[in-house]
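Notes from the 1:1 (GR / supervisor)

We went over the backlog. Supervisor wanted to see one worked example end to end before approving the batch request, so GR pasted a single chain during the call. The sequence is below; no edits were made to it. Supervisor asked that the structure be written out right there so they could see what the output format looks like.
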Amino acid sequence: MINVLAVDTSTNYVTCGVVQVSANGQVRVLTERLVDNVRGHMELLAPNIQACLTEAKLSPRDLHTVVVGTGPGPFTGLRVGMATAAAFGDALSIPVHGIPSAAATAWEHATSQVGSKAFGDYLIVSDARRREFYHSRISFFAGSAGRLCSEVQVPASVHSPDVVRDIQQELDRWPLRVLSASAVADQAQELFGSLQNCQVESLDAHPTPRGLVLAALESLGSVPGLLADAPALRALYLRRPDAQEPKAKAISKALDFSRVQELGVQEEEAGQNSAYAVDPDIAGVDRKANGQAARVRLLAPTDAPACADIEKVLFPEDSPWSAEAFASEIAAPHTHCLGLEVTDPANEPQLVGYAILAVGGPAQDPEGEIHTIGLLPEFQGSGLSKLLMDPLIAVADRLSAPVFLEVRTDNQPAVGLYERYGFTIEGTRKAYYQPSGADAFTMVRPGSIDDATPASEAKASEDGDRDRPRYIMGIESSCDETGVGIVASTVTDDGDAAQLEIIANQVASSMEQHARFGGVVPEIASRAHLEAMQPTMRAALAEARERVPGFRIPDVVAATVGPGLAGALLVGAAAAKAYALAWEVPFYGVNHLGGHVAVGTLAEDVAEGAGASTGTDRDLSNAIALLVSGGHTQILHVTGAGAPMEELGSTLDDAAGEAYDKVARLLGLGYPGGPVIDRLASQGNPQAIAFPRGMMRQQDSRYDFSFSGLKTAVARYVETADREGATIPIEDVCASFQEAVVDVLVTKALRACEDKNARVMLLGGGVSANKRLREVAAERCGEVGVELKIPQAKLCTDNGVMIAALAARLVAAGEEPSGLSTPTDPSLDVEEPVLRNP
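Structure output shown during the call:
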């Protein structure tokens, strides 16, 4: 017997059940839950699965496979079922089979008919929101030995005005049986109820556990197919996100990029690495090259012919790559392909360079290889190669991956460039390039070294399990990073605090997918979380098992449940519940902002040069936290990691990180804006332009912020210079803007420290990786005797470690688990460190 967990959330119904399949294909539903609750998928699915297992007298380990409906359906609910099923299967190392939900609906209805009454054409109609519906047509007929078989006649698609007319034409040839979901029952009855040769047989049709398994057996072809490896789940979205790429903004002629061009290579030679190096800055800086604006972007398959033309110019004596070869590389899922383009006097973009990095190997031990890099001769020697190399090296560093490449031994400029990035010559390949017969150096850049302190072996003491570290897993998905982190929590000798140690930290960012839109697109972020969750989880578990001999699964699973993007939160929290349920460990739903505070206990003051990954929370009994990111800018009063916090002030309009992005866009610097502006500002004069400091008048709020006026001031300054024919160094604009932001942030945070008599200030959030913010905060805190705590740069941006750290503090303080019915709350208040069942 095969025990199958069947799940679907593509309709208003929250559907789950345990189905038993015999060797001869007989299907028996042991237990099921079908609840009509369009807004209850997140709260009901995991506890209903638990109830089904209990009722069937099974444990999660008794399951052999998972079947899940993949839509079509509103993605709000669909993502919950798919994230839950994928995580459940991943936790138990069993296959997860995705089945079109429409097929499951049809199979449930057809098999409820007797004999030949099941045969015929079915039109399955379900809700697509926006007063539209999904529809698909499936035919049922008798196969060999009288077995009922099905065939998809029309794949699922979104309703269009032509659909009824097309169906009417087909009704002349055969009858149609309509199965409609309840959410669109009125539409279905109105459109199809009066048509001749068309019969509406159900106005409450939906997938069931039985229908899901029957459809899976048909799709897989046999009972053993249920136990076979399954391809990655792919949701039937059928509708693209609504986001549109913003129109390219012309770069003001008043902005002078010439000094940046001169300093580009000097900065690298001096080893001035950005604090943002943990994130791949794919959308590079706009610069001037030979009087033209230059910009890095992602290559598209349509760029292949232009890349091949450049290749012919650069390698006339050898065998240059063909357009087909470039197209194959660009389309490959494991490559990062960048192009460098300039804008000619006619404002037309021209591709002048390219670079391709391939990443292979297992997730826990990847390797990178630069397959090719090239820049037209007339653009060489001006520091533009950095624009192509920087983002590729950032990708490798984020993965801690070594990078390999080959380069002609007589190409000394290229060899020198690679050596500045840490590559060393490992060997020589004779006559590597053909037909010229030129030799090649093999060069290697080692993977970055993770500075997290290795964990000790997990052994139970002679007194039993009391002194064994508890392993807490955190899952983060509030925005565009999918993070999984694990910390070891050990009770200290005095028993009043827990000491934490990082044993795994894996992050997958979807930033590249958002770059062309100029900001985070919520729907794209949510879909990216669904795709990245299992690879990120596996990498984190592999890292933990490598560092801690004997480690198998965590003792607790926690997830961000708010604040954040609604859809993104659903994916991470649903997956976390499923992992906790499958592993039979407690689940904690925690506050994202509280995580940024808790992670501050894992690192010492960066100004003192320390970078320890262990710490306790004693220092945060009375502290001020300044949280600065693309979505949040807040001053919080902290009375302990994991304790409710008080919001003293926040932004009245743009968050600080959002202001960076908007100013970067109006300056033509691309997205994300923070890393680019930070790098350029380091070369500029912060006093060059007296930009205003928002909300700093005596009558203004003591702790609130406003950055929209500053953004407008930058725009007006550039427009005025352009109109007057003046030129201003881009680095001075960036430095002056950044100084205005940093000045206000630090001034108000220290004001809060004074008012609350707090002697500790914590800096957190993605913008806290900004070098100037760190410098000014350290300097001013030192002047007034306030201890500054800043996490390591890799812990400033969203990550799973911060969620694990907060959960560990809650567990150590005796807080009860949240429970599997816990909802997500995109507007969760800072006063709630943990959410519980409603």
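Supervisor's comment: The mean pLDDT is 84.
Batch request approved.
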